[in-house]
Amino acid sequence: MKTTYYGQSTFMIETGGKKLLFDPFITPNPMAKDIDIDSLKPDYILVSHGHGDHVADLLAIQKSSDAIIICIAEIANWLGKHGINNAHGMNIGGGFDFDFGRVKMVNAIHSSTLPDGSPGGNPAGFVIYADGKTIYYAGDTALTYDMKLLADDNLDWAYLPIGDNYTMGVDDAIKATSFINCKNVIGMHYDTFPVIAIDKKAAEEKFIKAGINIKLPQIGESIEL
């Protein structure tokens, strides 16, 4: 299983011969200017919520790849109005078996409005069960006690926001690792905008001091999970 970072909260996971793209925000991000979205060709796109910095390239990438979009039911309905009828709507607490593995939609504490002002339903995170591994993608979220419900999932990796201001910062993300019982973390949702800029070296030192294996990949960098 391999993951590749494309900036902000956008990752690809390759597993079971399938490509899963999370929260596509690439073309508006100057830090990701070298990424060609037409080359990505995901089989699935997982959307945690409706904000522009998570769905900016959603329609374009879906149309170039015919990917199935996994998202909250309200976003699936919104996509239908844009001519995309192969979205798989879910809701918090529900799970579904896909051809690459199982996806469970879990709670996130945030907000969710689509770029045109339409309501985006509840924000969400995902737990992916595939290729013998269990991966938590938290989406945009505050630290929440609901994360303790994941402690028995034996998570192999967790994608956690660390940029503060709109989501958890580094300190709360470190607390979250104890809630979810996972010490392998990939940081996301930082540096794209001035208000979420972080000192990467200081952040890494905090995670390491807490006994956490932290990865802050460069844009375009791949990591074996």
From TrEMBL:
Keywords: Hydrolase. It holds the Pfam family Lactamase_B_2. Residues 7-189 form the Metallo-beta-lactamase domain. One of its GO terms (molecular function) is hydrolase activity. It comes from Mucilaginibacter xinganensis. This is UPF0173 metal-dependent hydrolase MuYL_4751. Belongs to the UPF0173 family. InterPro entries: Metallo-B-lactamas (IPR001279), RibonucZ/Hydroxyglut_hydro (IPR036866), UPF0173 (IPR022877), UPF0173_UPF0282_UlaG_hydrolase (IPR050114). It comes from the Bacteria.
